[in-house]
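Appendix B, example 12.
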Amino acid sequence: MPRSKEASKPRTAPAKSDFRFAALLRKVQAAGWDRGQAASALMYLAAMRLKPA
């Protein structure tokens, strides 16, 4: 049975920023914040930073 195109793609390692984001979320959660709300806030701030001036 042939493999799907998805299965034949080489896997790539996560970007360093993914690890930093996960580490930051762990610290935020350890400080007592809700992880989901913190993730939403970080994504909002990242989007605002990417907006053209």
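The first helix runs from residue 5 to 8. The chain has a mean pLDDT of 79.
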